[in-house]
Design a protein that fits this description.
The structure holds two protein chains of two kinds. Chain A is mostly beta strands. In chain A, strand 9 (92-99) and strand 10 form a beta hairpin. Chain A has strands spanning 3-6, 10-12, 18-25, 33-39, 46-52, 57-60, 68-73, 78-83, 92-99, 106-107, 111-115. By secondary structure, chain B is mostly beta strands. Chain B has no helices and nine strands. Chain B has strands spanning 9-12, 18-23, 36-40, 47-50, 64-69, 72-77, 86-94, 99-102, 106-110. The model of chain B has no long low-confidence stretch (mean pLDDT 96). Classes of the chains: A mainly beta, B mainly beta. Chains A and B meet through strand 5 and strand 10 of A and strand 3, strand 7 and strand 8 of B.
Chain lengths: 117, 111
């Protein structure tokens, strides 16, 4: 059974960085695409970027391009999303999701990132 | 920047049929990119409901159906049930943004 397990909640100060992990089980991690999606409280879903595991091919949404880095570690079947220069508006739940095609068929449970001084 | 527009809310009585529209443009839905739909229950991760415009993943009831025409797509829920009360999002690829985009989201209320 496909499962994505994300790291726990984070509290960060403005201007710092956060790195969220997403560990996969039940599917072939290499050559799978892992997507990252952000959702602020009460707001819509917002695509952050993707990585094709194994090829390290990445693509980032234009609004996050300067601040986000998505990586993966095949040895542990884990993908990471690092967001830098955090500001209060980045307070949100971040989800990872498996993307076989253009759809996101399996989702992690979400990681709440709180940015507060 | 939201490029897929949905109505903020729709409602219906149990057993009724409701539809949710998703309006895009020539750089996403109109460019023949697939539309996918997600259901998000309160305080949970989204769940894939429809993929490839009109296909249901295993386990999704056939009360849910999707369609696409031109620069728009629609999600229909027939035989509305209390458990369908949730937020629904469409999603596609946008060539001008070179990335995926989600709709503005629609809250479905069962009266």
């Amino acid at each position: 059974q496909m499962q994505l397990v994300q790291s726990g909640p984070e509290v960060k100060k403005p201007g710092t960085s956060v790195k969220v992990s997403c560990r996969a089980s039940g599917f072939t991690f290499p050559r799978s695409a892992v997507q990252w999606v952000r959702q602020a409280r009460g707001q819509r879903l917002e695509w952050v970027g993707w990585i094709v595991v194994g090829s390290d091919n990445t693509n980032y949404a234009q609004r996050f391009q300067e601040r986000v880095t998505i990586t993966s570690d095949m040895s542990t079947s884990t993908a990471y999303m690092e967001l830098s220069s955090l500001r209060s508006e980045d307070t949100a739940v971040f989800y990872c999701a498996h993307g076989a095609g253009s759809d996101f068929d399996y989702w992690g449970q979400g990681t709440l990132v709180t940015v507060s001084s | 920047q939201s490029v897929l527009t949905q109505p903020p809310s729709v409602s219906g009585a149990p057993g009724q049929r409701v539809t949710i529209s998703c309006t895009g443009s020539s750089s996403n839905i109109g460019a023949d990119y697939d539309v996918n739909w997600y259901q998000q229950l309160p305080r949970t991760a989204p769940k894939l409901l429809i993929y490839g415009n009109s296909n249901r993943p295993s386990g999704v009831p056939d009360r849910f159906s999707g369609s696409k025409s031109g620069t728009s797509a629609s999600l229909a829920i027939t035989g509305l049930q209390a458990e369908d009360e949730a937020d629904y999002y469409c999603q596609s690829y946008d060539s001008s943004l070179s990335g995926y985009v989600f709709g503005t989201g629609t809250k479905v209320t069962v009266l």
